[in-house]
Amino acid sequence: MESESLFNEEVEPPGSLTGIIGPEHQTPNSFRPYKKPSHTSLYLAKPDRGVFPFKDSPRAKAFRKRFFPDISRIEWYDWHWQFRNRIRDVDILSQMIELSENEHNALVYHSGKIPLSITPYYASLLTGNDCSRPLRRTVVPVVDECFRMENEEDDPLGEEHDSPVPGIVHRYPDRVLFLVTGLCSTYCRYCTRSRMVGRDGEQGFSSDQWEQALEYISDRPEIRDVLLSGGDPLTLSDEQLEWLLFRLRKIPHVELLRIGTKAPVVMPQRITPALTHMLKRYHPLWMSIHVTHPDELTPEMSQACMRLADAGIPLGSQTVLLTGINDDVETMKQLMQGLLRIRVKPYYLYQCDPIPGSSHFRTSVSKGLEIIQGLRGYTTGYAVPTYVIDAPGGGGKIPLLPEYLVGRDGDDLVLRNYEGQIYRYPDRETPTNSDVH
Ligand code: SF4
Fold first, then answer.
1. Could you read off the pLDDT of 260-313 as tens digits, one per residue?
2. Local confidence band at 164 (pLDDT 50, 70, 90 cut-offs)
3. CATH number for position 359
4. Is residue 196 very low, low, confident or very high in pLDDT (cuts 50, 70, 90)?
5. pTM score, two decimals?
6. 312 and 423 in a common domain
7. How far does the centroid of ligand 1 lie from the alpha carbon of residue 187, in Å?
8. Radius of gyration of the chain from Cα atoms?
9. Which domain holds residue 424?
10. 312 backbone φψ class: left, alpha, beta (φ>0; ψ -120 to 50)
11. Cα-flanking dihedrals φ and ψ of residue 64, to 5°?
12. Which member of 28, 206, 377, 387 has the greatest number of CB atoms within 10 A?
């Protein structure tokens, strides 16, 4: 039977896209936004500039008054302002936090692929002068980034190998990863895609590339699930994102759309009423949110997630296990429980990928297993993510579990529960007459 499109609402098609893909204010002359649909329902939501009703947190207010005294609350809660005013410069950052010698040298002499970029909102979370603070370590470079260890690779997951056309990674049978931009508002120092985000990736995506990727998906009926990632797809304008979602929804065999993003964490202002209003027209649409530490679970992030959840978007989290940042049971438990409170299901806990200069972030696998063991049984099952290694060389995600299966004793499976106690389960394949009482 021919599959029917799940996209059953008539929406006027977006117009054409031309040129390089990026936020309007980054490449003002190279992107022509499409003509808005003539019916108004899509745009009835409040405009996404300035008026998004976030509750002003005392932390944000104090930070704003200190470092951006001329900026109004309305500007602060406008994601365009946050994006335009990303901190990309050692001089500005050093006014906000006292840089260690290590951080200062890394910033001054840095020539690596991932540039410095931190939204003012996220900078407001980097409190104090302690350079070992978890969030600070994830976004402020140190000189360790310059040292490439044996077995570290530019493309550790072999994505280029599984890329039939630019921007598409087709590794698993029924789904593709669609890399739509190389731009992020805030760069993580441990980014798996350091080869393509930041310096090399911010200008590297074009509408021609998107068209090629869409054609690839359209030509393959086996693709039922498309994950938009990058870079961060939520650095695109609403118009650009909708253009993509619209085109994908028109492909009858694409059942599921997903977006991977860190925006609710580093720039929650991005989750505007206009955005959620637009997104909910493209269901089933899921979102994976990259989150690292409980300090990120602010009232602003909570509001952003609630807004997405209220738009009917199922939310999952992705967390990279990072040494000295989140590699202990208590921190991870707080993070996972906090995510459930804001309606985000912990989805994946990743072993850190061996990109160049990542050795100071990577933990042993036994540490990850210890954390899973410390969660399972001790907290809500929904709060336990799947711990995976994305196999170097392109083997895909391989789940890892502590040893709960001790072995077999005759027809019995011998199992260990979360407290270490041993139990047996009768595991005969077919019951015999003598088993029937
Ligand atoms: S948000 Fe994602 S793509 Fe962007 S730098 Fe962080 S890990 Fe990389």
1. 999 999 999 999 999 999 999 999 999 999 999 999 999 999 999 999 999 999
2. very high
3. 3.20.20.70
4. confident
5. 0.89
6. no
7. 6
8. 23
9. 405-435
10. left
11. -65, -45
12. 387
